[in-house]
């Protein structure tokens, strides 16, 4: 399939760039550097260092645990959406969702994913296979959620069309509220739970002047325990 391109000779009033004010948007990346001598041997430890710094400097209303989750169908068609990191350890990065959502269906077909975190002039990219977490982990996190969020997991048929519009969703919410009225210990829906991205590649990106950014990539071969560190061209 060919990518779209304007008809030959087509230009905007300001020339071949349709939105020059967008093309002119840029920052000078000069906040920090990322050198091999400063990188920790374990990328999970390096992630924790950067994540803690992001949490301490994030402005109100911005969630430092927000990440872009990219999946693909068995035919290779990609999709991406923002989700929230809810836990991490030496095994990987955990998020929770509806197993019957588009992301859940794609992970059933193709159990690999990529995560992208963006914190100002820093970014972290994670790639690896995906597995469901143990039910005990899903139960523990679900029980920690506010009541409205627990009910919302039951009410929303995530990613499915709503022919009745917003009213259909709110009607479903009302029915769920009635169903669990007076019940504090709301059970976790069987179609809802956690996934763990088990990384085999993690890249740390630090913006630098003149677009000569620092990119350090950690790789772990299948069956290996040790990570290797490589600098990539920006």
What's the topology here?
Layout: H1 20-23, H2 43-57, E1 66-72, E2 78-84, E3 87-89, E4 92-98, H3 102-109, E5 112-119, E6 122-132, H4 135-144, H5 147-155, H6 165-179, E7 192-206, E8 214-219, E9 228-231
Antiparallel strand pairs: 1-2, 1-5, 3-4, 4-7, 5-6, 6-7, 7-8, 8-9
Helix pairs in contact: 5-6
Q: Tags for this entry?
A:
234 residues, alpha+beta
Short description:
By secondary structure, this protein is of the alpha+beta class. The chain has helices spanning 20-23, 43-57, 102-109, 135-144, 147-155, 165-179, and strands at residues 66-72, 78-84, 87-89, 92-98, 112-119, 122-132, 192-206, 214-219, 228-231. Helix content is 26%, strand content 29%.
What would you say this structure looks like, in words?
A hairpin with a 2-residue loop joins strand 3 and strand 4. The chain contains 6 helices and 9 strands. Helix 5 crosses helix 6. The chain is an alpha+beta fold. The radius of gyration is 22 Å and the shape is globular.
């Amino acid at each position: 399939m060919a990518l779209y391109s304007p008809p030959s000779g087509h230009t905007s009033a300001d020339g071949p760039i349709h939105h020059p004010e967008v093309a002119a948007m840029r920052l000078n990346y000069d906040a920090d550097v990322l050198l091999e001598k400063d990188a920790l041997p374990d990328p999970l430890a390096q992630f924790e260092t950067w994540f803690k710094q992001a949490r301490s400097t994030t402005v109100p209303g911005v969630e430092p645990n927000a990440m872009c989750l990219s999946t693909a169908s068995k035919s290779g068609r990609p999709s991406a959406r923002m989700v929230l990191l809810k836990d991490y350890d030496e095994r990987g990065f955990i998020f929770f969702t509806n197993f019957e959502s588009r992301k859940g269906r794609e992970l059933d077909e193709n159990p690999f994913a990529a995560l992208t975190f963006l914190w100002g002039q820093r970014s972290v990219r994670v790639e690896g296979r995906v597995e469901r977490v143990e039910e005990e982990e899903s139960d523990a996190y679900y029980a920690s959620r506010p009541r409205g969020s627990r009910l919302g997991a039951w009410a929303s048929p995530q990613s499915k069309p709503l022919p009745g519009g917003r009213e259909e969703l709110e009607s479903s919410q009302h029915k769920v509220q009635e169903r669990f009225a007076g019940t504090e210990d709301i059970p976790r829906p069987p179609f809802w739970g956690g996934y763990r991205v088990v990384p085999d590649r993690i890249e740390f990106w630090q913006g630098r002047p003149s677009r000569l950014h620092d990119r350090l990539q950690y790789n772990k071969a299948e069956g290996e325990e040790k990570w290797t560190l490589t600098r990539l061209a920006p």
